[in-house]
Amino acid sequence: MSAAAPLGLYVHVPYCSVRCSYCDFYLVPAAGRDLEGYVAALCREIDAAGEAWGGRAADSVHFGGGTPSLLAPPLVGRILAALSGTFRLARDGEIALEANPEDVRPDRLGALRDLGVNRLTLGVQALDDRVLGLLRRPHGAAQALRAVEAALTSGIRSIGVDLILGLPGQESREALAGIERLAGTPGEGRRGIEHVSLYLLEIHPRTRLGREVALGRVAPMGDDAAAGLYEEAADLLESLGFEHYEISNFARTGHRSRHNMKYWTDEEYLGFGPSAHSYAAGRRWSNAADLRAYLESAGRAARQEDSQPAAGRAAEALFAGLRLAEGVDLGTLRGRYGEGLPGPSDPAVAGLLEAGLLVLSGPRLRLTRRGRLVSNEVFERLLS
Ligand code: SF4
After folding, report:
1. What is the pLDDT of residues 143-170, one digit of tens each?
2. Pocket test for ligand 1, best of 13, 27, 132, 135 (most atoms within 8 A of CB)
3. How far apart are CA 211 and CA 271, in angstroms?
4. Structural domains of the chain ordered from first start
5. What residue ranges line ligand 1, CB within 6 angstroms?
6. What is the mean pLDDT of the chain?
7. Which residues 6+ apart lie within 8 Å of 19 measured at CB?
8. Does the pLDDT at position 251 exceed 90?
9. 297 φ/ψ angles, rounded to the nearest 5 degrees
10. Taking the complete model, does pTM exceed 0.70, yes or no?
């Protein structure tokens, strides 16, 4: 990796207005919180990063969470000013923000656009009020559609939505109709969304949904039915002109997520805020997931170094690259991580090539379509 490659910058906002029933992320309720105080701590952490990284070029900023759209635009502006003071932000850099539909208002979108935000991802999840209720999302389908419409007319360059499939009681026909409604080509002269992140529901035992399932009050969709629905949805999105460029992500030409590409191509990034992860100069570390300590120390909370051996890091880089449609350049990765990575003649790789789950084109190894559907199994076999 060239030391001069631009960094990605991640800003974590750990607040949510309510906890969705399936969510097991680290977050805190937003009600009554001092968001200005949080932003002040973030800005101090960013300023302090100047000691080690000051003046480094960066070409993506990603506000993730939690719910970054809880931050009023002037607070987003303060964070961007701190980042510009520490890093050399590219003029054509990506500035992305995740937003929940209930926070979207045309005046806010205009203010974000004027601050340089050029990518917005809306957490729509589904266009079915019953399913949204089960997820305990604060928005309904009509509000989600209004938010998408407002985003598309805001002048922000890339608009995307997050959707979940495989939800308890989700009807395939309705789910596909919802995707078509969101991602289909709108009428003449009107713009459609440019990016879709499509996830299969994961049920974590410690969540409200996990407990409901354990008690037998909610029946999850079967694995085969969920995988079948995912395939149909992927086909639909491809037929609508989206490239299935990563296992869970679809984009129109020129609208891939630049920031997330850094994770999948083993490029460097720095994260700010509690629980944020960083990877730079061959090191990986994360901030403690402890908002109180973060605020009390004004953004200087404890960090934990990733002490994983090189082989584990190499495997992570390999699996991340395999998530992409174009796969991963084995030669480049071996140059970076050494011979610890499996080569084409490694028995595990050879077996997966023969099984039609992987394909090798020149130096690039990638998953086949069937391999993508069982990617976890492929990764496990590679690890073994
Ligand atoms: S909005 Fe996102 S981060 Fe917040 S509770 Fe819901 S799923 Fe979790």
Report:
1. 999 999 999 999 999 999 999 999 998 9
2. 27
3. 32
4. 7-263 (3.20.20.70), 309-384 (1.10.10.920)
5. 16, 19-20, 23, 25, 27, 65-67, 100, 123
6. 93
7. 27, 29, 136, 208
8. yes
9. -95, 10
10. yes
